[in-house]
Amino acid sequence: MSDIINILPDSVANQIAAGEVVDRPASAVKELLENAMDAGATKIQLIVKDAGRSLIQVIDNGCGMSDSDARLCFERHATSKIHKADDLYAIHTMGFRGEALASIAAIAQVELKSRMHDSELGTQVIIEGSDVKEQTPCACPFGTSIAVKNLFYNVPARRNFLKKDSIELSHIEEIFKRIALINCDIDFSFHSNGRILYDLHGGNFAERISQVFGESYRERFYPVNESTDIVKISGYVSKPEFSRKSRGEQYLFVNHRFIKHPALSAAIEKAYTDIIPEHYYPTYFMRLEVDPSRIDVNIHPTKTEVKFIDESALFAILRAATKKALGQFSLGNELLFNPIQEVDIPPAPKGYVPPQPQVHYNPDYNPFEMNGKAKTGNTVSSKGVTSSFFQPTEHREPVSSKWTSFFDIEKEKTPPPDPVLKMDSGDENGIDDKREQVVHNPCIQIKNSFIVCSMPSGLLIVDQQAAHERILFERFNSASEQVAAQHLLFPVNCQFSPADADIFNELCSDLKGYGFEIGSIGQTTFVVTATPPDVKESELQQLFDKMISDYKGSMLQKFSDRKQCLCRSLARQMAVKSNTVLQQTEMQQIMADLFCCQVPQISPSGKKTMAIVPPEKILNIQ
Ligand code: ADP
Ligand code: MG
Asked: By the 8 A CB rule, do 464 and 450 touch?
């Protein structure tokens, strides 16, 4: 039998290699930008046409190449970055495999112009499908320009695999952002079809983040800084209230390289446990610096996956550093970031002596007494708190469930037993201390939206809506036994579209656990005969509609998720809103209930519920 093995020509081998390195225009962009970085450029331009299909050009002012290097760089395994195998463990450059340009040149028409700083003339190389067509001297600025035209012109299968221009362009944009973010001292610009998308000027990391993502990002993050023998960490993690429903903007860099590392990402996310709602994710821009000999970046051709020798230590350090940042800037300090926007306390006029706050409430008031006294108590104010706040509706039966505790005046007379708190007991500003401090203190309301109360540790400011949302959420979520239902005198009909009616049908069994009693009349009409105490009958349809849309939005299938989604939705809708006048007893009850929560600082929608201004800072608020 004759021999059947043959050695593939370089052009074919390069095309095969290209499949790994360049699978879409964005990968070519990555390689070219990284080469410009490695060349020491301080100014880099990226120009694309038709999302990189017709043209990808990167122009840099880096070191440039000699005539022969400009030819040689397109050979496979041609690299100036490593010389021997040992160098693999001391990598300080983005590239080192010497295959990017060879791969790109195998599947495109490439025009390179390059000039070294000390040369009068540059050199131009034209290469198509690994074939050098021309090399000539040329006049050009120093640095290198590589134009990649008609990517995949000779690999139609690959070309046909490309997605719509908008998708390919968004991949390119993502690559551009990753590289621009971590190389914040370099000027970058990005043009697409003649339009300038980014024009970034060198600055620090925070400046670059806000140049790329917008000025609003300046307010959204806490800094993280930690230095140990194993790793130096610096970056920014989002404040809990800016967490998101998807893992969009999570940037992890190691030694100036963007990486994907599920375990290290999990370390950062773990620091947010109990601070942000389930299925919400933080945004972060985290830079790690480790000894290059302790990582292996050569486990994948695109080098976005790396292996760490000290992975478990890194995990612990990263999580602790994130936690520290969140803790340092959370309860107690956070308001100092932006005191004026959060609470608008006008300066007192000169010589003004503030009167001592007065607490007005009716100690004899019992919400469940069916007499006129209850109604004439100073409970419902001009703007009217939600009807159920203190209102003993004639047709409701007395209830004694957890539902009533928020507005249950009985508590005023006999303070509730100490709650079992699950907060960290080591917290010096312990939640239970705070609770003790606030339960009996008089409160005032600002802008009908914030409750303010004095404590020995400072001025406590609570966002009434966010706080009540948290209280209700935990109450629903922990309702292990059935919540008592209040029967309606007149049943209320609710109507849905056929599709929504199907969903509502599914949710009905859960709703029963929260005090609703619901039957159906036909396919799309439901009759509600009982509700939990704090629900207005007139708003039932709206409440269910919103709940269904929240449910659809969350697209949750698992039972536990469904419950969370329901609890969140109900809490959001039933919570007392901003711009609602609250009475003293109501405010004190919110304070007391809030500090009984497991996670009092954040609402289930991720909003901050409270802030404390320490006494020494009060006068610093201009
Ligand atoms: P690698 O980056 O892994 O070394 P590449 O194929 O990307 O491999 O590039 C091959 C070589 O070409 C590089 O090692 C470098 O010496 C040279 N080179 C590529 N791009 C540039 C550039 N923009 N400026 C200067 N030299 C470059
Ligand atoms: Mg390279």
From this structure: yes
Q: Which amino acid is located at 379 in the chain? A: T
Query: What is the pLDDT averaged over residues 329-348?
Result: 38
DSSP 244: B
Report residue 576 CA to chain centroid gap.
26
pLDDT at residue 513, rounded to an integer: 81
pLDDT above 80: residue 106: yes
Q: Are residues 311 and 266 in contact, defined by beta-carbon separation less than 8 angstroms?
A: no
R_g (Cα) of the chain, nearest Å: 32
**394 pLDDT more than 90:** no
Residue-level pLDDT at 410: 27
- DSSP label of 215: G
Beta-bridge partner residues of 34: none
DSSP H helical segments within 343-409, as ranges? Answer: 372-376
Sequence-separated (6 or more) residues with CB below 8 Å from residue 296: 306, 307
DSSP class of residue 234 equals E
How many CA within 13 A on the CB side of residue 333?
A: 8
Average pLDDT for the chain: 78
Within 13 Å of residue 88, how many CA atoms lie on the same side as its CB? 11
Beginning with the edge strand found earlier in the chain, give each strand of the sheet holding 221-227 in spatial order.
221-227, 232-238, 284-289, 250-254, 257-258
Percent of the chain topping pLDDT 70: 78
In whole angstroms, what is the distance from residue 281 CA to residue 238 CA?
A: 9
Strands 109-115 and 122-128: antiparallel
Give the binding-site residues of ligand 1, using a 6 Å CB cut-off: 31, 35-36, 38-39, 60, 62-65, 73, 78-81, 95-102, 144
Beta bridge partners of 460: 453, 612
pLDDT digits (tens, 9 = 90+) for 62-90: 999 999 999 999 988 778 777 777 777 77
Closest Cα to atom 21 of ligand 1: 35
Cα 197 to middle of ligand 2, angstroms: 24
Q: What CA–CA distances, in Å, run from 427 to 273, 433, 592?
A: 16, 10, 18
Asked if 102 and 74 count as a contact pair (C-beta separation under 8 A), the reply is yes
Closest Cα to atom 8 of ligand 1:
98
Residue type, 477: N
Distance CA 535, CA 475 (A): 15
Nearest CA to ligand 1 atom 2: 95
Q: Which of 10, 34, 36, 5 is nearest to 22 (CA)?
A: 34
